[in-house]
């Protein structure tokens, strides 16, 4: 199912009921053509990368890692959110171009830190199912990070439960090699898929990121119990827990009370353009860098 948009300041979704099938088709083709131009021909000038801090809640909101989040801004379509263009990129294979762009940008960023003799914090990258199904994926990652002189411990990969619908043999082999490079694996959006627990059973992940839907209504006792239970299960399994989408002080206090170690959300910071992130890190007194 494809959706289409029109440009201008307001980013509007045209649902099939408001326009003819032909119009929808034409818009979708234009959107796809623009995405293709942005990813393949245009030297990725319309793509950019943001970093969002992940903090240690227990140790005074100390910066721990950051997640890389891609943005696509197009003249006609405006700022298209990743939730919209990543699925299109996955369908068309453009996700491989985007994935390579993101990894290289992150490596360049880490390299910049190194050159200034600062110890970089690890950066987490979202990896799509389609990338993990590429038999050469782990080797490509190894080559790229080697070409930037980056070690695996400077990176983390976030995967979602959607991997359970893919070619498990190839995916498991890629993950094994990636972990062999020292890259940690996090299960993203934990709890929203239909096989969260089965995935923990089958894949050796290091971290889980509890989806923001569970923290949204923390005043509801049921949501609270779910988070508590997931955290104690994760502890039992030796997994690190990160709670996503933390926006209020009340939520932070709740997480502190139940001894949840890591959080990410607008409460601490929105995603920051990669060019401004170094400034943010230097300004941040609560900075927990990787020990060499
Ligand atoms: P995600 O990996 O779960 O990333 C977290 C999303 O939550 C981001 O949305 C982030 O901006 C948003 N967020 C963070 N804190 C808060 C908060 O306090 N409140 C609310 N309401 N939202 C918060 P974003 O950047 O729009 O990305 C959406 C999704 O697109 C990501 O979800 C990820 O699945 C995908 N994505 C983003 N960048 C990439 C990428 O480089 N590659 C791939 N394959 N997927 C990506
Ligand atoms: Mg993520
Ligand atoms: Mg998530
Ligand atoms: Mg997501």
From TrEMBL:
<feature type="domain" description="EAL">
    <location>
        <begin position="28"/>
        <end position="285"/>
    </location>
</feature>
<dbReference type="GO" id="GO:0071111">
    <property type="term" value="F:cyclic-guanylate-specific phosphodiesterase activity"/>
</dbReference>
<feature type="domain" description="GGDEF">
    <location>
        <begin position="1"/>
        <end position="91"/>
    </location>
</feature>
<protein>
    <submittedName>
        <fullName>EAL domain-containing protein</fullName>
    </submittedName>
</protein>
